[in-house]
Amino acid sequence: MKNIEIKKDVNFIETLEEKIDHDGPFSSWELFKMAYDAELITITKDFHGLRALEFLPHMSFLPHQIETAKQAIEEMNGRAILADEVGLGKTIEAGLILKEYMIRGLAKKILILVPASLVNQWVKELNEKFFIPAATFRKNYPWDSYDIIVSSIDTAKRSPNREIILEQHYDFILIDEAHKIKNHKTKNYEFVRALKKKYCLLLTATPVQNQLIEIFNLVSILKPGHLGNYESFLEKYGRDRKKINQDAYLKQLVQKVMVRNTRKDTSLDNAKRHIETIWVDFTPEEYEVYNELDRTFQHASAFSKITFLRELCSSREACYLSLQKYVNDEKNYGQDILQPIIDRIGQLPHHAKAQKVIELIKQIGDEKVIIFTEYRASQLYLQWYLQQHGITSVPFRGGFKRGKKDWMKQLFKDKAQVLIATEAGGEGINLQFCNYMINYDLPWNPMRLEQRIGRIHRYGQENDVHIYNFAIRNTLEEHIMKLLYEKIALFEKVIGHLDDILAELNISSFEGEVKAIMSESQSTGEVKIKLDNLATIIQSTQHAWQEESQYGN
Amino acid sequence: MAINLNAFLENYFDAHHCDILSNQNGVLTVQLNEKMDRALMNRPFYWHYIKKMGRDGDPMKLTLITNQDSLEEKGERIHFGSPRLQQILNHLKENERFTRLFQVIHVNHNTALQPWLVVNIKLSYIGKHKKDEVFSIGLNLINGIMKTEMMESLYNKEFGMQISDFCYTITPIIKPLSGYKRILSVMDQYIQDLDHEWAKESHEELEIEIDMLKHFYQGAPDEELEQMEKELQDLNERYLPKIHLKVVNGGIFYLNGN
Fold first, then answer.
1. Domain residue spans in chain A?
2. Would an 8 Å CB–CB cutoff place A300 in contact with chain B?
3. Could you say which of A135, A236, A260, B92 would form a disulfide bridge with A35 (CB–CB 3.0 to 4.6 Å)?
4. Average pLDDT of A105-134?
5. Fold for the domain defined by A275-280+348-548
6. Same-domain pairing of B91 and B103
């Protein structure tokens, strides 16, 4: 009982007496009772457990996410490194932890530091998924008067922001991509250390990249002294990152402040994936137009050429529309050469892939199928074409409003056999009731493919899932399929480390890399060699990663 | 405590004198009045200008969907944790703190009503973790009798802002202030008697982390000691156990009988 500070409400009785003297105003019985009920339904009855779950009924959390949130709060007392592999939902875990502290009334003043490119995404996710009223830092939301701010670390550490921020007492600080502040000699590191904070989360998929001292630095932000002091740590463990695997004691210590879930230990793989490549041949007319388009653009803008060719592999409509747009733009040359091609596209028979889709769906039978395409024109075309064959379908786009998304999902569940979606961006929409997916065209960014598959292959999926990837032989689709997806074995192995690997290789955008290869190469042969090289490098880094990344829990 | 959200909302708007336009299958549509529009719809500029122009203004209609299976598209989905419900709960907690109520009874002879001080209290225990506990305590301002779970015993009674016919109130012998002090001293006693294992655990954790912190800064140059002080403060902030006693709401109730 000693050593507990007790703070009591002192104003209540005086205000009540004043009101009695002034004969009110008073609350009615109904409202008075409701206010009491409001308190009863919002209090936290227990020290343990996650109340946030009741507050977020629209979210379906994975078991490892809930476990992680509990561990960070109950065992790590709100200071933790969240180091899940990419794609397991670190953002979700962090949001859940933050929400819990907010509900319990322990966090009010909150600062979220993320890379500049992710600021808007964080604001959006916190607001939409967690109802956390976070705002982007702006001059008219001053640091000291707005409670929940998302900012890039560069903005935050710049004067005069820096001085104001260091004045604040933050209840909760979150730092995304925390491996960027692992070096204790940098300004960023020093800035983060200097923040006044109660709870703190560091998010990183790669807590140790080069040296073991990096983990020491991260831990020292959360719990200085947990791994000893700088000198003693260096003396004991040196700089070798492999030591963390050898030293069981160190590993144990790190586990007290770090949660790391890997795909292997999450139960995501209960339902198996069956992945099949469906090779399609263009009809002779289609090949003719494809090759003609390829030749025509040989020396013009290579970038547009790739786009047009990709579109032609998807549907006549997609290619037709954007070629037409290109021709109508007076800045572009070659109208006279292109117009005949456009006319020929207009006369092509039904697309070879679309015909294959019908064949495949008939074969699948009565099961629900989700089709992903990269293009809206293809989406519309497919919807029409399916209807011609008596197959019901509903469209789905990332741009739909929330209500419309839910409505389409419901229609798909209850009424239609097929859902045709243009992007995996429909995050938060879970389609576990569907076990069949057709990737009508492949995205050039494998992470996006993983997101697509994640719509149906996720926790709660009890049946095996079947995934069909379409590609047209002798087109650029073949290169992408053979050289990227099949060689890196991206279909079989869940993508996992790809992000880390790309970071280590200094490749910022996979898709950009592929596009560059496509557009800078002079011949198909060159494209093949370059893609093959890219795949080889990734493959070898992948092996290295698998051997080393066994630390953490 | 589980509540029927739809009924809760209907009562809420009803108590604020808003017309319920329809309420079917968990889809509630209500015509707000000006006061509630101002409280909930977050459009101060609208009201500012409409009043400047000397007009009445059009309060909005609000459709709240509590039935999560409803396919109704127009309206806001509202559930536990949604911003709208949080807003309404906060609106209640902030505005309905004080009352004076008379029990409604139908009699045709003179009947005395006794004054009670009713105080609803929330205790928050804050250490490594946090939990809350709510008490409802009533104190008879004539004879000093105290009751717990007071609200629960009042739930089924009817109360009004005015005194019923043939009823009269007895003047308190105990002043509300002294009554309040008595209630607080009972709470003090309650807190004293509790087993505060949570606080002990929190203290222990604090000690461990302070030791680690000191070790971390061992032999550090003086300029780093300032940083250590800051981190010590952060630790105290996070782990030092405290109890907050907050009055949820309360007031004077005139009750018939004891």
1. 60-259, 275-280+348-548
2. no
3. B92
4. 89
5. Rossmann fold (3.40.50)
6. no
